[in-house]
Amino acid sequence: MCTPARGNNVKEPPDLIAEMRAAHPPRLYGTPDCETWSVRFSPDGTLFAWSMGYGVIKLQPWPLSSRDITSSAEAGRGGEKTFNCKFLVWALAFGPCGSSRASPSRLNKAKQDLLLAAGLHNGSIQVWDTVTGYLRYTLNGHQAPVRDLLFCPNGSLTLISASRDKTLRVWDLVKKGSNPRVLRGPNHWVFRVSISPDCSIIASVCNLDSKVHLWSLRSYTLMKHLKYEQERTMAACEFSMDGALLAVASYHTHTGWWMDLWDPYTADLVTRVEDCEQCGYRSDNLLTSLSFSPVGLLLAFKDYRALQIWDVERDQLVSDTDHNRAGVVCCAFHPQGGVIATGCRDGHVKFWRVPPIVPSLRHLCRVALRFSVSTYQVQALPLPKKLLDYLTYRDIPTQKIIYCKEHHA
Where is the secretion signal located (predicted)? Predict the structure, then answer.
């Protein structure tokens, strides 16, 4: 079902590992329903799933074999599976999604019963068995397309869904999704959702309300809003690996994009990354996706100009690649780092090599502490201000402008 990019004699970037195309290319550029709206690696990194457009999901082993890259692959060949959902697939999520803090029994169960959830255009969620390839069950309740899905990163079968019907739902798949919790409040389509690593907070963004909604996953109530003064379209949000930072992507068609790092506990804006001043006026240069690396403090983000990876701790760009304007709409790091996958509007998937970054020992200590200690608790400790600023990420620049190669300062 996938074929390699070939035959145009275009020199590929050196950090491009592989590129795959759907077997049925779009009839015209911009034709709807062919987009790759979601790409995901399994929690252990041995499987890769992507929505191929036209309601089809491809599941294949990782790393890719030479056959996957150089020849057309038939359904079921070499451990691959193809799921026909019959409706456009907006979102994918593997679960249970165990973290390093999950209990060994939960982690072992996660390996045995790995599921793949798919959010569809008709508002339903299909849950597939990755081993047998069978459809386990279908979750109904949303009245509009399901735009995002995430399993709680604690090894449980709790699934969070975000929909254009202006709600989020919390499903317990142990009970086969019966009687889900419904979170209401937004007045616009809910586009993206993220769950803090300790499973205490849900962050969600809508397309037009210029704020971030923070929900309690323990009481299922709205905790607070992170508000913006200027009108903007919200594109994505994601917690860092320790939950101490929340990255939020937004844009305005006349002024470019912003990427903000918030403290979810205090609602303080820690730093703001802005689009190139010379390119900010471009109506097509919009930030479409972002993702924190599970290794180190790397943040990948993609606009219509390039895929860039920012080392937040060292305050430097470590990668600037994929300079075509095919329109990447999603990205995901491999759980062990080293690779990032991107999905495009034309149905392509690309795999990029991530520069090897060794996290500093002090950062690892900060992550271990901040995983379970809030900003307020850290600030109450009798520590020097410089150390407190480091532990609360107040030592990084408060503002940064990302210049493109053409206008590099």
Answer: none
pLDDT classification of 226: cutoffs 50, 70, 90: very high
Asked if residue 407 belongs to a domain, the reply is no
pLDDT of 78 over the 90 cut = no
- Any domain includes 185: yes
Residue 408 maps to a domain: no
406 inside domain: no
Q: Output the domain CATH number for residue 268.
A: 2.130.10.10
CA angle 208, 214, 220 (to 5 degrees): 120
| Cis peptide preceding 63, ω within 30 of 0 | yes
306, 321 Cβ separation under 8 angstroms: yes
279/284 Cα distance (integer angstroms):
10
82 is in which domain, residue-wise? 2-401
- Counting the structural domains of the chain, the total is 1
Taking the alpha carbons of 25, 30, 31, 36 in that order, is the dihedral positive or negative?
Answer: positive
Q: What is the pLDDT of residues 390-407, one digit of tens each?
A: 999 999 988 877 655 555
Q: Is 48 exposed, middle or buried (0-12, 13-18, 19+ CB in 10 A)?
A: buried
The C-alpha atoms of residue 229 and residue 212 are separated, in whole angstroms, by: 12
Q: Which residue has the higher pLDDT, 103 or 12?
A: 12
